[in-house]
Each structure stands twice: as structure tokens, then as C-alpha cells.
Write a structure and sequence with these properties.
The complex is a heterodimer. Chain A has a domain of 257 residues. Helices cover 28% and strands 29% of the residues of chain A. Chain A contains ten helices and 14 strands. In chain A, strand 10 and strand 11 form a beta hairpin. Helices cover 74% and strands 0% of the residues of chain B. The chains are: A alpha+beta, B mainly alpha. At the A-B interface, helix 1, helix 2 and helix 5 of A face helix 3, helix 4, helix 8, helix 9 and helix 11 of B.
Chain lengths: 389, 195
Amino acid sequence: MDDLRMVRSLLDKPAPDHAVVAMGRDRLRAAARARGRTRPARRTMWLTGGLGLTAATAAAAVAVAISATGTASDRTAGPRTGGPRTGGPTVTLSARSILLAAATEADGQADKVGGYWHTTTVDRNAYRVTGGYTVIDRSQREQWTPSRPRQEQWSSDQRLGARPESPADTAAWKRAGSPGTFTVPASKGSGRAKYGPMPLSVQPGRPSVNRAPLVDGDKVFWLGRNVSMKDLRALPADPQRLKASLKRWYSGHGTESSSDPMSSDLWLYTVAKGLITDMPVTPKVRGAAFRMLADLKTVTAAGSVKDAQGRPGTAIAITEHTKFGGVQQHRLILDTTTGRALGEEIIIVKPSGTTAGLAPGVVWTSSTVVAQGWTDSAPSSTSGAQRGH
Amino acid sequence: MTGLAGVDAGGQMSDADLVREYRHDPDGFTAVYDRYFGDVHRYVAGRLDTQAADDVAAETFLVAFRKRERFDPARGGFRPWLFGIATRLVAQHRRVESRHYETLARARAAPDDHGHENQVVTAVTAAGLQPQLARALAALTRKERDVLLLVALADFSHEEVAQALKIPYGTVGSRLNRARKKLRTALEKEIDVNG
């Protein structure tokens, strides 16, 4: 018998079944649509996303629908507005499709390490203030992390000011005489800690620049444990091995405190989120992290959303039943066209304890990546940096 | 889908037509998918097994979509281009591929309860030589296997293999010959022992 035919009969497989064909097509469509949606300003949007939170984007954040359980509510992907050429059926994207699409994009990216990993993020936190309305306090953090050991890590922090959250909050704020400062009342002690009253201002603050030597001379990020740049760059690019390497540091509790039980999936999500969003891992490792999340059953799709900067993205989510803050949904917002994360947020599903008073659906806290990449140098030491300790 | 639906019903559009279509509307790339996904999946499933192929075949088209601007129908068809991408993705799953051959080798490695006569008969079929063939495949170099399997599983001509793997035409023939010689040696050794 002909050896080629023997090989063929040995390896021959039936045609893929319909579900497989359909899923692959969905993944492709997701990529095609995301691409079509953002193509004109794709690169520039990433580098120069504006910082301002307009009333419109603040309102958009509230309008985001909640899918507490996810699976039943995996929503459609493309905000394609029925033009003559877009008459196709609506595509429902699973979290898996979204993550695998992002992974494929990440895999294809170039990666050239420079002197410093530079990131600019804008964080937003919602507070219920005295007077009975909600404000969003914003701050910007810029960070330069050296690629070599025994260098200094630089950061610059600036408060951008607080604003009423929704139109209703704006109305309540105006009724109160449009005060320039807010007070977050002291915590009644429903949570672990008691907090004193906290003042907030509508005015931006001045940047505070800091520099400090790396922990142990080389540790740059936290990934279940402190890791050096070398550790980060050496992470496995295979999803299974990456998962195993991360899970070695999981001992059944949360990332911040050892007294906080946390499910293994949520723990992996939290660690992977940091890795994907903040850290200079190789593009293939970022891809592996997306694939690892794609295999977690509790991670669901949250559909097309806008991040707190107003940029369009696709979100995946995982729900946490917290001990002191009610039910919360963690979201990772992805730009599937670049295989990068735009940011993350936590949405209040059921307010309670530390989140009491906030409306369900509110983005309680968010962190958006405004710029990210390698640079050759840190900011000059003449910029008045304070030496950290 | 879009305006191409009527034209494409019988798969009549040329590669160049498909290219024009998706250049006009990225969604049109799904027509490329619909035409070639089954073939690509079958090829990848042959090398990696079905489950891995579900992902890798889908990824092939995502990669192709991302690189679609670089595809030039004047330099070869979609088939070599797509199978070239698929082959490079398969190369990233080397351990999955060798596990697959190992599984095939073990599937019939245990002596079955057919009589001796029966065994002699099946020894000349692919099924009877499954362990040897699977091991011989695993023992090929990746480059040899790429050429051999594009020919054996996807019926590629030498020219198509050259386009897919971006190697000279002459290299296709020499790699294929080397690969087939190794397979035949492995099989003949087995037939000698059994015969």
C-alpha cells in the first residue's frame, strides 16, 4: 500500500461539526467587527486617550447593564448600526471567544524591551458623600519601572478632582450649592476597618513625583509573590504551564490579605488581570494569560462596553460575593483588536456594607490604562522628585 | 451576509473576487473562512487531534484575517497561504502533536486477539501498522513532516507546498523523498519481523 495513503488513513479525521465551525466563524467576526469599528484611530487612540471625564462618559458608565450571572446574558458583540452592508445575523460572543481573539492578537505583537516600562493609568473611585449623592474621584498615576535590577522605580501621582457621578447626582450637587469640596462620612464600622471622614475636592492637585530603589534590589511587580523583571520575562507562554506557575502561589485566600477566602478562579482572574493590564510580559505570555482565563468556567462575557475613558471595548467578567461589600462584578475591558486591556472595573451588583448607599450598576472603582510602553529613560532627576523610602 | 451572497452560493468566486470583497468590507473575510475552514481543520486535526484543532484552525483564520492585506492572489491561492499559517501554528504545539502520534501508536500496540493469519493480513494495512507508522511520523524532523503531511493530508502539489512553507520548489521534493524513505524503512522492518 502506498505510504502516503497509509499516512492519510492513519490520521484522517471527520469534518468538524457545526458547532465548531460556527464558533470559529464567531471568533473571526468578532475580530472583523472590532477591527472595523476602531480602525481609523486605532493606534493613536491607544497612545493619546484623553484624560478628561466628561459628564457624558460618567453617565455612560452608569448606563452599563449588569449581568450578574453572565452565562444567560452573554451579549452581542458589534455595535454595528444596520447599514446596507451589515445585514448579517447578530453574533453572540462567549467570554471564551473574546479572550481567544485577544490572545491571537497578542501573539502577533512585536516586543522590544527598553530601559523603563512606562505606564499611565487613571483610577476612579465612587463615593457616597455627605449630602446624599455620589461623586467620582479621579487620580492619575504614571510609573517608570526599570528593566534592569538595582535601578530606581519612578512614579508620579496626581489627583484630578472629583465630580458628581450621574446627572441625578449632578442635580443633587447643584441643589447643595455646587460645593467645591466633598466629605465622605466616616465608616460606621460595618467592614473590617473603620475609616475617618475623607475630604475630596473638585480641584486637581499637583503631581507628586517619587523615586525609590526596587524592593530587594530587583522586585518590580506582584504576581502572587514579588517578582523581578527577569521572573516576569521568563513566565511560560503555554496556558497550562502559566496557570500551574501562578497557582503555586495560591493558598486559598485573596491577593491582599491572608484572612480573605477567595475562590481559585477569582484568584487566578485577579493575578492574570494584573499581568495582562499592567505588566511588561512578552506578548505570548499575555496571550497565554488570555487563554488561561478562557478556560475558567466562572468567567463570563459582559458584551460591548465603554471604559471609563469612553473608549469602546469588550468586557469579560467574574462575580464576587464579598464579605463586607455586597456582590460585586469584576470586569476586564479588552481591546480585542490590539490584544491589550483597556482597563478594569468593579461594578456594584448588590450594595451592602462598605458599598451601602451606592446604586446597583454603579462603577465602584475603575482603573484605565491611558498609555503603556517601553521608554529609554526615566524622567530626569531635575523634576523635583522626592526620594522614597 | 453581504452583497456577495448570491454569487458565492456555489463557491464560484475566485480567490481574487474574495479578496476584493473583504477589502471592501472586513466581514467579507468570513467567505474565505466558510470555503476553507473544513479543510484546514481536517489537516490540523490530523496532526494535533480534533480538540486542539478546533482552536488552532480557528486561530489560523484570525491570523490570516490580521495579515489579509499581505495576501496577494497573484502569488498563489488561499489554500497554500492558509495551510502555511496553520502549519506554523501547529509548530507551536509540538508537544500536542507528538502526544497525538504516541496515542495512535499505543492504540493498537497491545497484541489483539485475532489469530496469526489475520494479523498477517492486517499487517499490510495502515491499521495493522499503526504503531510503527505513528512512531515513524513522530521521528521525522518537523520540516520533513510539514512537507509530507501537506501532501498526504491536503493533497498539495509540490508547488503548493513550496508556497505554503516558503521553501524552494526543489527542497519540497528532497524533503518529501527523505520523509517517505524513513516511513518505508520503518514499515518494511516491521513487515520483515512479522512476515
